Amino acid sequence: MVYDLIIIGGGAAGLMAAAEASRLKLRALVLEGGAHPGVKLLMCGGGRCNATHVKVTEKDYSCGCVHVLRHVLNGFSNQDAVRFFEQWGAPLALQDDGCYFSADGKARTVLSALLAAIRGNGAELRCGAKVHSIAVQDNIFNVTGGGFIEQARFVLVTTGGLSYPSTGSDGSGYVLAERFGHRLVPRRPALTPFITFGDVFASLSGIVVQVRLSLWVAGRKIKTIQGPLLFTHHGFSGPVALEMGRAWLDAHSSGGEVKADFLPELEADGLKVVFRAAGQRSLKNVLGELLPERLVVLLLSMASVDGLKRPGMSELTRDEKHSLERALRAETLPVKDTAGYAKAEITAGGVDLNELKGASLESRLQEGLYFAGEVVDVDGRIGGFNLQWAWSSAVSAVRAIARKC
Ligand SMILES: Cc1cc2nc3c(=O)[nH]c(=O)nc-3n(C[C@H](O)[C@H](O)[C@H](O)COP(=O)(O)OP(=O)(O)OC[C@H]3O[C@@H](n4cnc5c(N)ncnc54)[C@H](O)[C@@H]3O)c2cc1C
What we know:
Blueprint lengths: L1 E7 L3 H12 L4 E4 L7 H9 L2 E4 L7 E3 L2 H10 L2 H10 L4 E3 L4 E4 L4 H14 L3 E3 L4 E7 L2 E6 L2 E10 L14 H8 L4 E7 L3 E3 L11 E10 L2 E12 L3 E3 H15 L4 E5 L8 H7 L6 H6 L4 H10 L15 H12 L1 E2 L2 E4 L7 E6 L4 E2 L4 E2 L5 E3 L6 E3 L4 H20 L1
Parallel strand pairs: 1-2, 1-10, 2-7, 10-22
Antiparallel strand pairs: 3-6, 4-23, 5-6, 8-9, 9-10, 11-19, 12-15, 12-18, 13-14, 13-16, 14-15, 16-17, 20-21
Helix pairs in contact: 1-5, 1-12, 2-5, 3-12
The protein binds flavin-adenine dinucleotide (FAD).
């Protein structure tokens, strides 16, 4: 049998593509290399799946071709995604920070909705079917894996990137693209935690604090992000660390340093005001009202200041005030590296959007071959933007294919 469409990869983009193909009544087959579909999807948002964001624009992404990105995002918007999941039994709930999560807090519900939508009109999903090569003969694609060859008029590659290879995304889609002559924008891990020199902060593992992180290169501040930082056994994670990782990697060879302001809501001279109002209370108690106790103890010891001293009673020396100010407001974090692809939420780089035909995402080098999801050179910031790209790009490609069918 010759399918209308073979989708290679049953992750977020591949499953949404199959759902749309099913809705448009294409004869579609998803070939997923792993034993189960949507493995990475189940990990999204800490298992709660941050499926999209209340405001999505091209500014939330890095990519080499902004107008195509905008077109694709508008074609199947965040509100379309919200409606889609509602329709298929996975309502999304809007949080105060603008992120939409699975309303029941389960990524599995989002996956089930996709699978239900695929079954709706009968697209096929086959697991344990890793694709090794694609060849074209007489306008028909032969898609080959271990022990199978399948044929289709169109092929959509949704094999993901290199991040979290344990979920099945091992970069094989890039090899398929390169065989058709595609140029790959250099790939690197993005949204990946920091690992540190030594274990100074390890005792804080599990604590989350609001911070302002800034990246400094040669005495110049080049990036600032404010939000939650999570201390881990091996370093720093949470949204601000994940967002900063990519910029740090780029600046690392030029001596980039990450500094943390643990009191981001205070004005520049806010610490002085706090100390003046401290009265008889000890430093440890005053700071304990602003920060978790374990962090206060660590920062006091790093600043070599006795926590029993009373700042309101002028018991701190000028040097002590200075080193305390530095520890609390501009501490250089001992960043050694990022955790790389093993823990990256996304791969930056990939199949160049400029080599795809606009919002159809069809290859300019091989008619009938399409790409969507993380395999393409588009990566978003944290907050549901990467899944929105997966949904939008998948739908965009399938609608273009349906128009040709
Ligand atoms: C821990 C973690 C948490 C995340 N949380 C969020 C979040 O909350 N919100 C958000 O927006 N984004 C999140 N992301 C990013 C998001 O998961 C990705 O953007 C999204 O999964 C990309 O979808 P995809 O379909 O392109 O790739 P994937 O989901 O990686 O799917 C690719 C699929 O293709 C299969 N495959 C690969 N090669 C072949 C082959 N040769 N033959 C057959 N099958 C193949 C793989 O087995 C895999 O199932 C998170 C990522 C991680 C790692």
